[in-house]
Write a structure and sequence with these properties.
Elements: H1 3-18, E1 32-41, E2 52-64, E3 67-77, E4 90-101, E5 109-115, H2 117-122, E6 132-136, E7 140-143, E8 148-158, E9 166-169
Antiparallel strand pairs: 1-2, 2-3, 3-6, 3-7, 4-5, 4-8, 8-9
Length: 176
């Protein structure tokens, strides 16, 4: 091997040995969650069959550095008397996910996003007409100082009731 090649190989070897180890992969954020349930009446139906929907929402937040991450997961036990996959149960439905700063008094919202995909999921049944299901929002994130939390609000507009969206507030996540 000529002198130039030896010097280059030696320099690369020294550089490889002296180089710091690759940084360790950052740990996934640890989510803090709260869950609450509500029995919600189908305001568009007033017939003889039970029509309440039990909807539970778990709201979660995590922090990694200055960034707060949040998602919500809804689980429901709906009615069993409707048609299979009835697309006329709602005129609209959305799950609003918010990241808020935790402050005395009203917590200011720093970011919010509405997820309307939940309407299609709520109107989807088993082949036997059972309206039980679940939906998880995508994760949202925002840079926030210390003391932030996630909050969830479910908006349901029952078909035929003429009232528009009804608001259902759920328990927010612990502060992260």
């Amino acid at each position: 091997m000529n002198t130039f090649k030896r010097a280059a190989v030696a320099a690369l070897t020294v550089a490889a040995v002296a180089a710091p180890a690759a940084p360790a992969a950052t740990a996934a954020p640890v989510y803090q969650c709260s869950s609450s349930s509500q029995d919600i009446d189908d305001a568009g139906y007033d017939g003889p069959w039970p029509d309440n929907w039990k909807i539970t929402i778990r709201t979660c937040a995590a922090r990694s550095g200055n960034t707060v991450y949040a998602y919500a997961e809804a689980n429901w036990d709906g009615t069993r008397f409707r048609e299979v996959d009835d697309p006329t149960i709602f005129d609209g439905a959305k799950l609003r996910l918010q990241i808020k700063l935790s402050r005395d008094g009203t917590d200011p919202v720093v970011i919010e996003r509405d997820f309307t995909e939940i309407e299609r999921r709520l109107e989807d049944s088993t082949s036997g007409g059972n309206y039980d299901g679940r939906y998880r929002t995508p994760t949202i994130s925002h840079r926030a100082g210390s003391g932030a939390l996630a909050d969830s609000v479910l908006f349901l507009d029952w078909h035929g009731d003429g009232r528009g969206y009804g608001r259902h507030d759920y328990t927010g996540s612990p502060t992260v």
